[in-house]
Amino acid sequence: MPGDGKVCSFDCIYCECGFNKDFRPKSKRPTRQEVCEALTAVLRQRHDDGEGLDVITFAGNGEPTGHPDFAAIIDDVVEVRDKYFPRACIAVLSNATNIDKPEIRLALMKVDDNIQKLDTISPLYINKVDRPVSPSYDVKQVIDDLKKFDGHVIIQTMFMQGTYNGESVDNTSDEYVTPWLEAVRDIKPQKVMIYTIDRETPAQGLKKASPTILDGIMARVEQMGIPCSTSY
């Protein structure tokens, strides 16, 4: 991602990086070569200095799979990781907007933690809260594409309460949780990660989901035999 802004295919009202319109980057994305050289330099230094390394994570100010050379970058990262820290994990945090592309799915199959967002299966809620940039976003198609990972995927979901523009954004009720659980069961992920608001959000009126609510949802996931973690 460019270092001076945000580039994302979602414009979530809870994003800690702010709204897309407020952080338009002026610089370009780093090239595949620049990413590889920078990562190599850091890993070589840590290796030579005897420092440890647990995880290399693609995350931050936007959607990483949107890079035109994402698949090739993953190949480079795997190669560099294997050279210096073969036991380190590679994780990708994604909003699942590009997993319809076979080359992206293939690249994500090469990482250890393929973490994909699915906040709900309600199109109305998604358009109000996640706000996909593309008008052709189809959550049903996304779910079908998540199934294509054959279990090599971690589902990450934001649960919250409160209001935005005078409308409820609470997705913790059975109205939202039960259909979401059905989708999770069909996807058969290796794990589910649920969380709530932890940092300042660009939209006002949003509220954290309580630990009690999150623990209740976690228990329902675990009842299906799927490991689940929560972050309060």
Please give the structural blueprint.
Blueprint: H1 32-48, E1 55-58, H2 70-84, E2 89-94, H3 102-108, E3 113-117, H4 123-129, H5 139-147, E4 154-158, E5 160-164, E6 167-168, H6 174-187, E7 191-195, E8 206-208, H7 211-223, E9 228-231
Helix pairs in contact: 1-2, 2-3
Explain how this protein is built:
With 232 residues, this protein is of the alpha/beta class. Helix content is 35%, strand content 17%. It has seven helices and nine strands. A six-stranded parallel beta sheet has the order 1-2-3-4-7-9, with helices on one face. It has a three-stranded antiparallel beta sheet with strand order 6-5-8, with no helix packed on it. It is globular and about 50 Å long.
Please outline what is shown here.
By secondary structure, this protein is an alpha/beta fold. 35% of the residues lie in helices and 17% in strands.
